[in-house]
């Protein structure tokens, strides 16, 4: 299992729940931009599980995420029966009425990179790398992808795009 966005909220709890269902010969890789919170999750899981857990600082807003992801997966035994990639990370951006939105291009690009581009870049790497007989790619999105939410148009568009990938 590789969980992207595992350091807090839903990703943290998802990682805890996944770990409780895995066998002793399993590997759980936790990725997040906040290494301190991520290590806290890793240590919490390690107290109740004997699976191998690895955590890596992984900021989806950086330009070199593909290279960094390749480095991480290159150090994994690729002969698992089942492999899972969970895209959980995301960012809201500004939650304001459209008429008041003064987001700069850099801010919008950061949201696009984290919410959409990262999924498009990392998924093919994952697929090419592993030789598993069962491969699963899980997109964690939001009700915002299918139901309009006040002041969240940019976020909703990004989650809808992810749903379609």
* H/I helix tally: 5
Structural class: alpha/beta
Task: Count the E strands.
Answer: 5
Report strand order across the widest sheet.
3-2-1-4-5
- N-to-C SSE series? EHEHEHEHEH
Give the uncertain stretches in residue-range form.
Answer: none
The largest sheet is: 5 strands, parallel
Radius of gyration: 16 Å
Average pLDDT, all residues: 86
Helical amount = 40-55%
Taken from the alpha-carbon principal axes, the silhouette is globular
How much of the polypeptide forms β-strand, as a percent range?
15-25%
Distance between the termini: 20 Å
Short description:
With 165 residues, this protein is an alpha/beta fold. The chain has helices at residues 9-21, 35-48, 65-74, 105-129, 153-164; strands spanning 2-4, 27-32, 52-57, 82-87, 134-139. The protein contains five helices and five strands; from the N terminus they run βαβαβαβαβα.
Top keywords for this entry?
alpha/beta; five-stranded parallel beta sheet
Break the fold down into its secondary structure elements and pairings:
Blueprint: E1 2-4, H1 9-21, E2 27-32, H2 35-48, E3 52-57, H3 65-74, E4 82-87, H4 105-129, E5 134-139, H5 153-164
Describe it.
- By secondary structure, the protein is α/β, with parallel strands linked by helices.
- Helix content is 45%, strand content 16%.
- The chain is built from five helices and five strands.
- It has a five-stranded parallel sheet, with helices on both faces.
- Helix 1 packs parallel to helix 2 (35-48) and helix 3 (65-74) packs parallel to helix 4.
- The radius of gyration is 16 Å and the shape is globular.
């Amino acid at each position: 299992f590789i969980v992207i966005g595992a350091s807090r909220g839903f990703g943290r709890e998802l990682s805890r729940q996944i770990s409780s269902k895995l066998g002793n010969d399993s590997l759980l890789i936790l990725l997040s931009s906040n290494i301190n919170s991520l290590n806290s999750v890793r240590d919490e899981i390690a107290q109740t599980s004997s699976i191998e857990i690895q955590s890596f600082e992984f900021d989806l807003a950086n330009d070199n995420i593909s290279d960094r992801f390749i480095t991480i997966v290159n150090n994994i035994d690729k002969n698992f029966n089942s492999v899972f990639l969970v895209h959980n990370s995301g960012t809201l951006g500004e939650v304001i009425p459209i008429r008041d939105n003064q987001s700069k291009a850099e801010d919008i690009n950061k949201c696009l990179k984290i919410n959409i581009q990262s999924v498009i870049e990392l998924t093919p790497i994952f697929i090419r790398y592993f030789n598993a007989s069962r491969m699963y790619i899980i997109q964690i999105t939001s009700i915002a992808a299918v139901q309009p939410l006040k002041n969240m148009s940019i976020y909703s568009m990004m989650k809808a795009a992810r749903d379609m990938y």
